[in-house]
TrEMBL record:
Protein name per the record: RDD family protein
Recorded topology in the membrane: Multi-pass membrane protein
Lineage: Bacteria, Bacillati, Actinomycetota, Actinomycetes, Micrococcales
PANTHER family: PROLINE-RICH ANTIGEN HOMOLOG, PROLINE-RICH ANTIGEN HOMOLOG-RELATED
Subcellular location per the Swiss-Prot or TrEMBL entry: Cell membrane
Keywords carried by this UniProt record: Cell membrane, Membrane, Transmembrane, Transmembrane helix
Top-level taxon of the source organism: Bacteria
Main location class: membrane
Gene Ontology terms: cellular component: plasma membrane
Transmembrane regions: 41-59, 79-99, 120-139
InterPro entries the UniProt entry points to: Pra-immunoreactive (IPR051791), RDD (IPR010432), UCP021697 (IPR016795)
Location of the RDD domain: 35-152
Short name of one Pfam family: RDD
Length: 159
């Protein structure tokens, strides 16, 4: 049975120490080690900005004659979220990383068999929970968000 200490949150930062890496079978540092908070947040910002830009271009806000910054404020939040969800789902399922992950040197892998692609099902679970936000900001003792834990995945460094 899990105790209260087994779960943390984004407020406490990513758990440190050899215990988490040992339990997951990951190296302590370098390629293949657990991703840290900074690159995770950076990748999320890049992916959200890309989704916003795509929504801006697809929804025809450009044709309204507004300036760029005014046009961005007209983009629907649900369109941004929808584009973010679809791109995250498909990119993680097929190549294991989003645009932001690639830029920050991260990759989503299966916890059990890291050589196999994440796949559509695991990626869908992970993406849906990521979009709900709360599962993504609550971490277990291993430093994985609940969205990764539910999908059986882990976000690792590629460099």
């Amino acid at each position: 049975m899990a105790s209260r200490e087994d779960f943390g949150s984004w407020l406490e930062g990513v758990p440190t120490g050899a215990g988490a890496a040992d339990r997951l079978g990951l190296p302590e540092s370098g390629p293949g080690s657990r991703a840290t908070l900074g690159p995770r947040l950076g990748a999320l910002v890049v992916d959200w900005a890309a989704a916003t830009l795509v929504a801006y271009l697809l929804l025809g806000v450009v044709s309204q004659g507004l300036g760029f910054w005014e046009g961005l404020s007209e983009v629907s939040a649900s369109a941004q979220l929808g584009i973010f969800a679809v791109t995250t789902w498909l990119l993680v399922a097929s190549i294991g990383s989003t645009i932001g992950h690639r830029i920050f040197g991260l990759r989503v892998v299966r916890l059990v068999d890291r050589r196999r692609p994440v796949g559509l099902g695991r990626s869908a679970i992970r993406t849906i929970l990521l979009c709900l936000v709360i599962p993504a900001v609550v971490w277990d003792a291993d430093g994985r968000g609940l969205h990764d834990k539910a999908a059986g995945t882990v976000l690792v460094r590629t460099r």
